Amino acid sequence: MNKAIETIVSEIVAGIKELIVRLELKRNPPEIIKRSPLQVGIFSFTRFEYAHGKLKLFSTDLDFGGPDLIIPVRDEQLSFTEEEWRALDALWLKAMEEMIVVFDENAVLDFNYTAIGTIGAGSQKRTTTLFEHTSVPKQAKLQNIVEQYIASKVVDGEYPTKELDTFFLSRHLLNPALYGKILPTEIMFIYERILALNKENPTAQQEHRRTFIQALRNWVEETFLPLYFNIQKEEFSNTIYTLQPHHPLPDPALLELVLFTAGKVIRHEANYMRSTGIEFIKLAGQLGSKTAPIMLQSGSGKFEAIVTKDVKCTANDTFGTIQIHILQEKMEAYQTALQYIIGLLENGFPRSYSIQLKAKSKHVLPIKKLGKTPTHQFFANALQYPELHPLLAKYATTAMLEYEWYDDAADEYCAMPGTYAVFGLALASPAYFDLVKQYMEQVDEEHQSVQNHFTIAWAEQYGVTPTTIPTLVNCMMACQEMRPPKLFAQFETTENITALQQLITGMEDYEQAHIVSMIWGDVAKLKQKAKKKDAAPALLGLVSVLKD
Predict the structure, then answer these.
(1) Could you give the dihedral angle defined by the CA atoms of residues 323, 262, 240 and 255, in that order, rounded to the nearest 10 degrees?
(2) Which of the four, 142, 397, 407, 489, has the lowest number of CB atoms within 10 Å?
(3) Handedness of CA 396, 398, 403, 407 (dihedral sign)
(4) Cβ atoms of residues 266 and 318 within 8 Å
(5) Is residue 289 located within the same domain as residue 195?
């Protein structure tokens, strides 16, 4: 064999080994993998550039950033024949396999490791065959760990899971090297189960969702699609996918996982990623998926449309959208639409959703700082018909669910499903005060503030009286901190203070402090006010029940 070939391969393999050793010394892998039981190694990839007397080594495949290590190597003007290039490639794979096994039980490398690079010889430049190695000891260990984790922490889990665990678990499940195959049904179940376990913390749940969807998207783009499409990536335009003429027949279950991924990308990732999700669906259609075109048109196809002379209702559970086209502005149109929406929610439609409304009427509720969205306008329109109020109440009790949201209202306009119906009904009649209580008990006050504006509007309409104070207290308990409205001065009558005292006596100290701050600014201000000569005598009684 050509001695130059042996020297080049020897220098590259020795350089990769030196890089791994240096990374091990720098990072302390045994300590790092303690972060998660699902991590058995740190690095899984090496890229190199061999040319012009330098060997540049990289531990990631990112385009930005410099090399982790640069080693001087031979710098001769060489030229290889095709046969010699093939010999070099074969020797590269053989030498790497002989070298890499020494790290099989070392935490510096993950269970599955790949390496690839370019070699320049004179005017020639070639990319090596991808080297791939699976550490059998680490693979067996990780399989056992993953199975135990899924059984104890996910399937039978009762507590929130760790975000880092989800990062590793999602990637292991979507790595064919771990089990030799992908299990779509199990993956989809685990995704939903992890979100359910972390539902009480929306911020954490969002991070779990983002992490898992990113893993799914990476699998589609980097593992699945290259099997069937020739892929041309453009720097400033969309990636071009061309179906391979003699591609293998895709597993229908894997196509379902692609569609599952597409739906999650469309619904939960940033708006600019929507086109990527839609592209996934179209590509699945090219591969023979019968579900793909239906999914674009009407979602999963599970929910049928309703068309009458008064209204047309359709739903797409892929996008979490309900399309309502009011053909006749009359009670019957909104009645049919409300019944349709209730039916959707009772039969598995996404609990976070939005309404796309086409109607002549464009009513809004008389509440400041409530986003004027199509969803808001639909319920405001329906509220114009008193005979629909009981049905709206049924909708509200069906729709209300903590940590779910209307998708067309964000930031300061963020609103739990049922919000507009509850607010409108509460302003329409005292008969719905109990509904307000149910609503406020489910509000996620850390991530929603529209209830503050409703509380003020409601108090302006009904005033502060012993009759309204119980509902007001329910509202205030769900409100974020705010400057006390001027109308809350109405609390300072003997009757009202007595009613308030009865309600807060059994509360925790932080709950009492919150109510007091909503009315008087803070506890100190209330105590100062109670000491004044012109203060209502009942204020001292109220202060006496406050817990330190």
Answers:
(1) -120
(2) 489
(3) negative
(4) yes
(5) yes
Q: CA of 327: how far to CAs of 8, 314, 331, 383, in Å?
A: 75, 14, 12, 18
Residue 535: pLDDT above 80?
no
Q: What is the band of 198 on the pLDDT scale with cuts at 50, 70, 90?
A: very high
Domain membership flag for residue 256: yes
Q: Is 155 exposed, middle or buried (0-12, 13-18, 19+ CB in 10 A)?
A: exposed
Radius of gyration of the chain (CA): 32
pTM, full prediction? 0.66
Q: How confident is the model at residue 464 (pLDDT cuts 50, 70, 90)?
A: very high
The string of pLDDT tens digits covering residues 168-191 is 999 999 999 999 899 999 999 999
Residue 234 binned pLDDT confidence (cut-offs 50, 70, 90): confident
Which residues constitute the domain of residue 360?
Answer: 306-434
241 belongs to a structural domain:
yes
Last residue of a domain, one of 103, 119, 134: 134
54-58 and 69-72 beta bridge pairing:
antiparallel
- Tell me the pLDDT tens digit for each residue of 489-498: 899 889 999 9
411: which 2 tokens?
Answer: 């930031």
| Same-domain status, 13 and 127 | yes
Give residue 271's pLDDT.
59
CA gap 496, 465 in Å, rounded: 6
Among candidate residues 266, 297, 328, the one where a domain is terminated: 297
CB 39 within 8 A of CB 106: no
Q: What are phi and psi of 114, to 5 degrees?
A: -130, 155
Torsion-angle region of 303 (φ positive above 0: left; ψ -120 to 50: alpha; else: beta): beta
Please report the pLDDT score of residue 64 as a whole number: 62
pLDDT at 350: 85
- DSSP H or E stretch at residue 131: strand 131-134
**Structurally, how many domains does the chain consist of?**
3
